[in-house]
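Dock adenosine monophosphate; give full complex structure.
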Amino acid sequence: MGIDLHCHSTHSDGSLSPADLIRLALTNQATMLSITDHDTVSAYRDLPSEIGLHLVPGVEFSSAWRNVDVHVVGLNIDPYSRDLALICGEQAERRLRRAEKIAKKLFAKKLIGSIDGALEGVRKIAKGSTIGRPHFARYLVEIGSCSDTGAAFKSYLSAGKIGDVKDEWPHMCEVVGWIKAAGGIPVLAHPAKYKVSHLKLVSMIDDFKSFGGRAIEVTSGYQSPDKTKLLADICARLNLSASCGSDFHSLEKRWFQLGKTQPLPVGCKPVWEEWS
Ligand code: AMP
Ligand code: MN
Ligand code: MN
Ligand code: MN
């Protein structure tokens, strides 16, 4: 469809710079792109002078809803908002505190040699970007505790495993408020990825709407047609807009093509109508 409203750069856990992402999106014939790094908008201070497509300023915040780590994308935000800069600074501090907790848990299981050494190693890997579990995954591979990053997630870092520390995140309601205050549209990220029952997912989306959420990602990355239909139905029933994004992080995952998302089902109200 040539519209991709969710991807990551080197400013969080992606492997391409903002300029390389834009270049790849253009090669893939995208006309609209949003770079939505985890808890930071610093990519928008690191753009090439020529862009050549409609770049929609965005962000992906981590938040908490009940016991679930829920991601909320903010689209068409003001990336130069001072309040947003302060909020991103606070999220970075939360990520640092969380990294200490993750390191303590991994140390208790003898997966790392020392807490300080691991924090130093993770910071080196992150190179100034927002620190997250993918950086821990790479560290565990670097020191030989895991064979590859997929195995590190599977055994220690994915939802419910010891390194899945989520008690730092602000409530989903608060995060939706930040996005609205920055002039943006709050979008529930990858609804099909949360490990919850159908009933709980509907409650999550209901709550998201009551907090001021405006859209959900009806298509996200590679997703089965059944899931897309289910999300399109919820979206129509709750009168929400529909977004689409690859959640592209790197070229390693060849089936996640930047800028080449699955089309939105007929009848969905596209989220970009909210600002165009
Ligand atoms: P964090 O921001 O620290 O909560 O880490 C979440 C990020 O980890 C996601 O945005 C993905 O990039 C990555 N991730 C989550 N689950 C997995 C998994 N099972 N395998 C590989 N990467 C994952
Ligand atoms: Mn990520
Ligand atoms: Mn996410
Ligand atoms: Mn993402």
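Observed: The two ends are 17 Å apart (CA to CA).
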